[in-house]
């Protein structure tokens, strides 16, 4: 809770801000309460093979990657999908992901 309070204190509500790494429902609840309808959660999902491929420089072996993926701090991430404004399946290129985000920003009016 304290980390969420510190994070919220650093955000200028008159500017768009992206926050990466929500892991718990508490994170979502704090941000949603603080910013109301101007807060949106975009859940970016990728299959295990794509995720491992992208972090090979951090995890030299699949075993090390799997240990990080199954750490208890990661256990509740999928539960956030239910609260997401949008879910993006990110099994393609970085350019494709950027296009999906750009399309969402344009449709939501945030790019105005």
Account of the protein in words:
This protein is mostly helical. It folds into two domains: 1-14 and 21-37, no CATH class; 40-112, no CATH class. It is built from five helices and two strands. A two-stranded parallel sheet has the order 1-2. The radius of gyration is 16 Å and the shape is globular. The mean pLDDT is 91.
Give a quick summary of the entry:
The protein is mainly α and 112 residues long.
Task: Summarize the helices and strands and which ones pair or pack.
Blueprint: H1 2-10, H2 25-35, E1 42-45, H3 48-54, H4 62-69, E2 86-89, H5 94-108
Parallel strand pairs: 1-2
The percentage of residues in β strands lies in: 5-15%
Indicate the radius of gyration in whole angstroms.
16 Å
Count of DSSP strands:
2
How many domains? The number is 2
Beginning-to-end CA distance, first to last residue: 33 Å
Poorly predicted sequence stretches spanning 5 or more consecutive residues: none
Per DSSP, the total helix count is 5
Strand order in the sheet with the most strands? 1-2
Described by the principal axes of the CA atoms, the overall outline is: globular
């Amino acid at each position: 809770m304290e980390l969420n309070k510190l994070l919220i204190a650093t955000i200028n509500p008159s500017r768009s801000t992206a926050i990466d790494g929500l892991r718990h429902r508490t994170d979502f609840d704090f941000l949603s309460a603080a910013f109301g309808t101007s807060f949106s959660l975009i859940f970016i999902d990728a299959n295990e093979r794509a995720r491992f491929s992208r972090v090979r420089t951090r995890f030299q072996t699949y075993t090390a990657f799997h240990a990080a993926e199954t750490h208890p701090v990661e256990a509740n991430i999928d539960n956030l999908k239910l609260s997401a404004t949008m879910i993006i399946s990110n099994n393609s290129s970085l350019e494709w992901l950027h296009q999906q985000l750009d399309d969402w920003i344009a449709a939501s009016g945030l790019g105005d």
